[in-house]
Automatic annotation (TrEMBL):
NADP(+) binds at L9, G10, I11, G12, T13, V14, G15, G16. The active site is at K205. NADPH binds at K105. Pathway: Amino-acid biosynthesis; L-methionine biosynthesis via de novo pathway; L-homoserine from L-aspartate: step 3/3; Amino-acid biosynthesis; L-threonine biosynthesis; L-threonine from L-aspartate: step 3/5. It holds the Pfam family NAD_binding_3. L-homoserine binds at E190. GO terms for biological process: methionine biosynthetic process; threonine biosynthetic process. Signal peptide: none annotated. PANTHER family: HOMOSERINE DEHYDROGENASE. It comes from Nitrosomonas aestuarii. This is Homoserine dehydrogenase.
Length: 437
């Protein structure tokens, strides 16, 4: 059988890794796919870079449109990123009857519904294993391996850059900025690194997983998002002292009233496996009613780990392209006409325990005032730290851990505490996730 022909859009970090691994492991990949898979066209704005990778038989262009409309191309691999040009290119490719493989979580989280519908209409596949957690085969696990289960929740460290920064801050006490710089140099960060550190990239990924886990449309606009930029070295140290690690988590959970969808830093008990996931590594815990908690671990970013997922999709598409579209694995795991309208809950309706750090004046009655406010909002304290100060009148940190409380009540209590004259500045709140199933 003739090899399947791939048009590669973008030969940067992931595109470069994909080309290299596909070439290096060609013989084994062919034996697995049952047919050769060759890149026959590459588009990149940087023609010199593209030529430095491409074999002489490969057509190189700086016009990606030429590839998505080319009659010889069977599969488009979109690795340019972004939500505008990439969207046009993918929709054009689909309209031309081509299958698509992409690592573009921003695009799918925002426009997945439109793209998946277009693909369904044309009977082509859109595969996106690389879009979530880099090299970890989490999409396939959720979509195919856990289909017996009613998924209860998913919690994941799903941004390699943010995890790399938090690890370096904790282990080496390094400041934020130079570590982010290093993550960018290593090719982990998004084109706009604000996506990594503000939690947006993790929110794209948890939105996609939530849709697959619960059979709902992708609804990025409903996600609650908080990044790691406000975390300080002292919060990381206090958390450590209390037996926790701070991680940026993507969480989606089915509760009675709907579905939680959120990204924020969280204290996780240090004894949990996931609390010990460091550097660019990612980990996702999926709790199913039948299987219990399962953990998926691996490199969350970088050229070859991400290429591993891109190529797995290429093999899948190659194997499946002759199958009747009705009998292929559904894109979001559930049959498209059987998606549910279970609402995604506003953050105020979510219940979590919290770590609170307050700066107060060390004088009689302060603690009583604060605990009074917490009691008024039905918030119960589970642990507390106050270090000795130089003397009365000094400013001191008080750290409190609360039991689980409705977010709405915690917000109101924080606002009230911040208005007390004995409290200076903002209260730092980091949610706690026990992740104990
Ligand atoms: P890079 O910036 O390294 O590569 C993108 C390449 O595409 C660059 O060479 C860029 O050229 C080129 N390009 C951009 N726009 C166009 C265009 N219109 N026409 C032709 N070429 C274009 O990005 P990554 O490889 O890091 O990321 C690619 C995708 O993979 C993104 O969606 C990202 O979110 C996703 N991803 C990345 C991971 C990673 O570890 N890096 C992991 C998982 C997913 P130029 O540089 O000149 O703009
Ligand atoms: N910027 C992303 C990260 C790339 O750091 O996790 C992988 O999706």
């Amino acid at each position: 059988m003739n090899p399947i022909k791939v048009g590669l859009l973008g030969i940067g970090t992931v595109g470069g890794g994909t080309y290299t691994v596909l070439k290096r492991n060609q013989e084994e990949i062919t034996r697995r796919a049952g047919r050769g898979i060759i890149v026959s066209m590459i588009a990149d704005r940087d023609l010199e870079r593209a030529r430095s990778f491409a074999d002489s038989s490969v057509i190189v262009t700086d016009n990606a449109q030429d590839i998505v409309t080319h009659p010889d191309i069977d599969i488009i691999v979109e690795l340019i990123g972004g939500t505008t040009i990439a969207k046009d290119l993918i929709l054009t490719a689909i309209a031309q009857g081509k299958h698509v493989v992409t690592a573009n979580k921003a695009l799918l989280a925002n426009h997945g519904t439109e793209i998946f519908a277009a693909a369904r209409d044309k009977g082509v596949m859109v595969a996106f294993e690389a879009a979530v957690a880099g090299g970890i085969p989490i999409i396939k696990s959720l979509r195919e391996s856990l289909t017996a289960n009613r998924i209860e929740w998913i919690a994941g460290i799903i941004n390699g850059t943010a995890n790399f920064i938090l690890s370096e801050m904790r282990e080496k006490s390094l400041p934020f900025a130079p570590v982010l710089d290093q993550a960018q140099k290593l090719g982990y960060a998004e084109a706009d690194p604000a996506y990594d550190i503000e939690g947006i990239d993790a929110a794209h990924k948890i939105t996609i997983m939530s849709a697959i886990a619960f059979g709902i449309p992708v609804q990025f606009d409903k996600a609650y998002i908080e990044g790691i930029t406000k975390l300080t070295q002292e919060d990381i140290s206090y958390a450590e002292e209390l037996g926790y690690r701070i991680k940026l988590l993507g969480i989606t959970r089915r509760v009675e009233t709907g579905i939680e969808l959120r990204v924020h830093p969280a204290l996780i008990p240090a004894r949990r496996l996931i609390a010990n996931v460091e550097g660019v590594m990612n980990a996702v815990v999926v709790k199913g009613d039948a299987v219990g908690a399962t953990l998926y671990y691996g490199a969350g970013a970088g050229a070859e780990p991400t290429a591993s997922s891109v190529i797995a999709d290429l093999v899948d598409v190659t194997r499946m392209q002759t199958a009747d579209p009705m009998h292929r694995v559904p894109t979001l795991s559930f049959q498209p006409d059987l998606l549910s309208d279970t609402p995604v809950l506003p953050m105020e309706a979510v219940e979590t325990a919290c770590y609170l750090r307050l700066q107060v004046i060390d004088k009689p009655g302060v603690l009583a005032e604060i605990t009074r406010v917490l009691a008024d909002f039905n918030i119960s304290i589970s642990a507390m730290i106050q270090k000795e100060t130089g003397g009365e009148g000094d400013t001191v940190n008080i750290i409190m851990l609360t039991h689980k409380t409705l977010e709405k009540n915690t917000n109101a209590a924080i606002a009230k505490i911040e208005s007390l004259p004995v409290v200076s500045g903002k209260v730092t709140r980091i949610r706690i996730e026990e992740l104990n199933g």
